[in-house]
Amino acid sequence: QVQLVESGGGLVQPGGSLRLSCVASGRIRSINTMGWYRQAAGKQRELVASIISDGNTNYADFVKGRFTISRDNAKNTVFLQLNSLKPEDTAVYYCNAVGVQFTLKTWTSDFNSWGQGTQVTVSS
């Protein structure tokens, strides 16, 4: 199993910034896509941003120009820089990774793993 651990959430005032980190560990052969999703209270989980192994990125319209996703392939880590935060950005942010892992029985298999989530609260 591939595990993801997020960090960096917290309470910030409107207009402030945070930097989220997510580290993947386990029997990882390769990670294709890493991404950040968020889920606000009473709402469905939604994609915030994603990045594939060659560095190409994809952003939700509501964060373009404010958030930046990046990754360190050597460390199996993805980051999300959140700037110009708004109260409506308040949510639990989840890390996601899709790739290939080593297994004992089949040598390799696909994985799609989620982190436990980190709370981001934007409030004055």
Describe the protein's architecture and organization:
The structure is a single chain. By secondary structure, the chain is mostly beta strands. Helices cover 0% and strands 61% of the residues. Strands 2, 4, 5, 6, 9, 10 and 11 form a seven-stranded mixed beta sheet that branches. A four-stranded antiparallel beta sheet has the order 1-3-8-7, with no helix packed on it. 29% of the residues are buried.
Determine the fraction of residues in helical runs and give it as a percent range.
under 10%
| Radius of gyration over C-alpha positions, nearest whole angstrom | 15 Å
Largest β sheet strand count, sense and barrel closure: 7 strands, mixed
The CA-CA distance between the termini, in Å, is: 40 Å
Class by alpha and beta content = mainly beta
